[in-house]
Design brief:
It contains 7 helices and 9 strands, in the order αββαααβαββαβββαβ. It has helices spanning about 1-15, 30-35, 65-75, 90-95, 105-115, 155-170, 210-215; strands at about 20, 25-30, 100, 120-130, 140-150, 175-180, 185-195, 200-210, 225. It has a 4-stranded mixed beta sheet with strand order 1-4-5-9, with helices on both faces. A 3-stranded antiparallel beta sheet has the order 6-7-8. The protein has a two-stranded antiparallel ribbon with strand order 2-3. Helix content is about 30%, strand content about 25%.
């Protein structure tokens, strides 16, 4: 099947680039899907019209109390990250709500929390779920690839070089990196590749360097490319 072939090719390319594959639950806590990525609890992406919430179980278990407290403080006042935070009262109840994971970054942020020591490169490939209106290029379930590089010498140039190496191995020769905004990376870029059959640039994904508000509460003090 074409989709299975793409999965196999993606795994081969990431393995050749020195990455290890990881996985995470499809039913995920809002804590790992949103809060650990410094996404505020009133962010529009958390609304019912964008996210599938799960009725059973009613709540998800959160990790150890010290980590939860660091995440809460980062949201409220920045904690020890040098940030001002989002300036609101963080709610444990909201973080415990189970969702169908909205992105594969839920897997890589779990991996970063479990072992933030450099050097490390991991990736995840699997289904994610969003309340999309079905059309010729949107489904409520689709597959996503996500990876991180934890390295003391990592920078934007090495991120762009890694992305170029990946997409070249996937069969593309022309790339564009355009400035973008994501809540949990800074700087951030969107990757476009030239599609010969379409005769146009096609957006393939987003990338960036995790913000300190994401990495420091997890015990990571080195750059993390996402």
């Amino acid at each position: 099947h074409p989709l299975v072939s793409i999965f196999a090719q993606t795994r081969r390319v990431f393995s050749e680039l020195g990455f290890s594959e990881i996985s995470s639950p499809y039913v995920e806590s809002s804590f790992w899907d949103f809060d650990a990525l410094f996404q505020p609890q009133d962010h529009p992406a958390r609304e019912m019209q964008d996210t599938f919430y799960v009725a059973r179980p009613a709540t998800c278990a959160l990790p150890e109390a010290t980590l939860v407290q660091r995440i809460a403080q980062t949201h409220e006042n920045g904690g020890d990250t040098g940030s001002l935070g989002w300036r609101y009262q963080w709610s444990r109840h909201v973080a415990e709500r189970p969702v169908l994971r909205t992105h594969a970054t839920a897997a890589t942020i779990r991996a970063l929390a479990s072992d933030p020591r450099p050097p490390r490169k991991v990736f995840c490939i699997g289904p994610v779920f969003r309340r999309e209106t079905v059309d010729y290029k949107h489904l409520p379930m689709f597959h996503q690839v996500d990876g991180i590089i934890i390295d003391e010498h990592a920078n934007l140039a090495s991120l762009l070089g890694t992305l170029q190496a990946f997409y070249r191995q996937m069969g593309f020769e022309r790339f564009q990196f355009r400035p973008a905004f994501f809540p949990y990376t800074e700087p951030s870029v969107e990757i476009f590749v030239w599609a010969e059959r379409k005769g146009d640039w096609v957006e393939m994904g987003g990338a960036g360097i995790f913000r300190p508000e994401v990495t420091r509460p997890l015990g990571c003090t080195t750059p993390v490319l996402a």
